[in-house]
């Protein structure tokens, strides 16, 4: 079964209307492979702006949301609000949410369940830290994170799994294509054993961690790498080269 290549751009806490407007113009006028699903993760305050300016062929994602639809949760946004802005995706469980803001596996699972129930697509992030990789427990860590997500998913067609080794995010270090493929292959095998053959074959497992125009082609050629979640490079014109990594 062929899985549609998926490239997400995570803008993180970057940009303003001027610079993001220019980036959006570059994307709208760029030549992008029509066989690729592209989603841009905008800061929540710019979701409306991004959705109104970006061409309809690009999706937009929020970078986080809360686990209920409304209430006394100062500073949070809900899937209902995200959808009201015409936005159909949310990134959940990013390592910065886990390690900078202390979000637990349990909370990320609850958010995933609520976002999916609300009709959003979820880019669910998992990945090990450097000491965990050096300690030889990469599999244990990513399987545990994946299990909490899997326990909260009923419809896998709305989920993209993003493997992001924490030691490679924003550090300039990239997992080698072989390292990425190895973990992706093990994740697919885990899904086969713990969810189903059909889900293991159809769910897209994308790689994140210092993906650039220079590293994307070899990574994209790996059998189980179905796309990318791109950080810093998604704010630059080279994002188009990354989108076209398979072209």
TrEMBL record:
A GO CC term attached to the entry: cytosol
Entry keyword annotation includes Calcium: no
GO molecular function, one term: triose-phosphate isomerase activity
This enzyme's EC code(s): 5.3.1.1
HAMAP family given in the database record: TIM_B
Subunit organization: Homodimer.
Function as written in the Swiss-Prot or TrEMBL entry: It is also responsible for the non-negligible production of methylglyoxal a reactive cytotoxic side-product that modifies and can alter proteins, DNA and lipids. Triosephosphate isomerase is an extremely efficient metabolic enzyme that catalyzes the interconversion between dihydroxyacetone phosphate (DHAP) and D-glyceraldehyde-3-phosphate (G3P) in glycolysis and gluconeogenesis.
Protein name, UniProt field: Triosephosphate isomerase
């Amino acid at each position: 079964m062929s899985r549609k290549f998926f490239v997400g751009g995570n803008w993180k806490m970057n940009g303003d209307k001027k610079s993001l407007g220019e980036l959006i113009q570059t994307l709208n006028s760029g030549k992008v492979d029509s066989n690729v699903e592209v989603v841009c993760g905008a800061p929540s305050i710019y979701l409306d702006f991004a959705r109104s300016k970006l061409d309809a062929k690009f999706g937009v994602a929020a970078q986080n949301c809360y686990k209920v639809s409304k209430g006394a949760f100062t500073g949070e946004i809900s899937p209902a609000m995200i959808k009201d802005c015409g936005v159909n995706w949310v990134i959940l469980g990013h390592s910065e949410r886990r390690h900078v803001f202390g979000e637990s596996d349990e909370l990320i699972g609850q958010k995933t369940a609520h976002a999916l129930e609300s009709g959003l697509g979820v880019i669910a992030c998992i990945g090990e830290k450097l000491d965990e990789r050096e300690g030889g427990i990469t599999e244990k860590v990513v399987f545990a994170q994946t299990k909490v997500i899997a326990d909260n998913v009923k419809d896998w067609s709305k989920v993209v799994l993003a493997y992001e080794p924490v030691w490679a995010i924003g550090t300039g270090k990239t997992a080698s294509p072989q390292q990425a493929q190895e973990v992706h292959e093990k994740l697919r095998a885990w899904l086969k054993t713990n969810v189903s053959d059909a889900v293991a074959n159809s769910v897209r497992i994308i790689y994140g961690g210092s993906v650039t125009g220079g590293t994307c082609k070899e990574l994209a050629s790996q059998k189980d790498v179905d796309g990318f979640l791109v950080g810093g490079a998604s704010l630059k014109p080279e994002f188009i080269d990354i989108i076209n990594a398979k072209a």
